[in-house]
Amino acid sequence: MRSKLVVGNWKLHGSLAANEALLGSLIRDIPGNEPAACAVCVPHPYLAQVQGLLQGTPIGWGGQDVSRFEQGAYTGEVSARMLVEFGCRYAIVGHSERRTLFGDTDTIVVEKFAAARRSGLTPIFCVGETLAERESGATEKVLERQVSALTAKCGAQEVAGGVIAYEPVWAIGTGRTATSQQAEEAHAFIRGLVASQDGRVAGDIRILYGGSVKAANAAELFAMPDVDGGLVGGASLVAEEFAAIWRAAT
Ligand code: PEP
Fold it and tell me: What is the rounded distance in angstroms from the CA atom of residue 149 to the CA atom of residue 108?
């Protein structure tokens, strides 16, 4: 049985003072021993602060990206080992903003996934179609390309150590959420793609939905059989809203 997971993606937001207030509220609102896990993925400079505040709480944390390289002359990169040194459990890879704005190709994203796994992190592997792709009926083709890039390069055991996030690009930061049926269809399709590599891994791997998740739509999305939680952007910056989304998963 897969347990639910709700992850906040702070993107390029935060300050020392705002983070402290946000995490202080979440620590009060998110108790331990609950069936659903919770984590936040924060800008790298705040990892030490977040580690200090969240250590010993049920809330995990991670980076929003990770280098595919382990070390070397790669200015601006942050390695998986560095994330681990700051207590990270997760690293998002292949977020659509990285794919579209920073040139992360399928190949690069899979290399980042593999680098994260080598250091013992749980990569959150993001996939999803643009609006034009959905409207032209290419959703499954896009998902197949993105997921098979992963399964072709990484063995089943490596894939099993990750989480997949289905994030339709047209729903990210737009206020336009996929219906629960659209989400379920895409999640079941993705699970089927993983099953063609390994049925057991497909049954166990968590597939999160991301794209304008709010307290008002979370319960319906999370009730779908193949939706194992959410990756939450904007709403993760508001403590009460994010805690309510997490509660919808418990
Ligand atoms: C995201 O950044 O992964 C995301 C889903 O953003 P939002 O919830 O704001 O749509």
Answer: 10
Q: Measured between alpha carbons, how far is residue 247 from residues 30, 116, 174, 184, 235 in Å?
A: 8, 28, 23, 20, 14
> Rounded distance, CA 3 to CA 19, Å?
27
Residue nearest to atom 1 of ligand 1 (CA): 233
Tokens of 236: 């993760």
pLDDT of 196-237, one tens digit each? 999 999 999 999 999 999 999 999 999 999 999 999 999 999
Q: Is the pLDDT of residue 1 over 90?
A: no
Q: H or E stretch including 84? A: helix 80-85
Which atom of ligand 1 approaches the CA of 175 most closely?
Answer: 10
Ligand 1 atom, smallest distance to 236 CA: 8
Question: Looking at beta carbons, which pairs linking 25-32 to residues 24 or more positions away fall under 8 Å?
Answer: 25/239, 25/240, 25/243, 26/59, 26/239, 26/242, 26/243, 27/53, 27/54, 27/57, 27/59, 29/239, 29/240, 29/243, 29/246, 30/57, 30/58, 30/59, 30/243, 30/246, 31/58, 32/57, 32/58
Cβ-based neighbours of 77, under 8 Å, separated by 6 or more = 67, 69
Give backbone dihedrals phi and psi of 125, rounded to 5 degrees, phi first: -90, 110
Of residues 58, 14, 28, the one with CA closest to residue 240: 28
Structure tokens at 55: 């250590």
Pocket test for ligand 1, best of 95, 97, 167 (most atoms within 8 A of CB): 167
Whole-number Å distance, alpha carbon 237 to ligand 1 midpoint, is 11
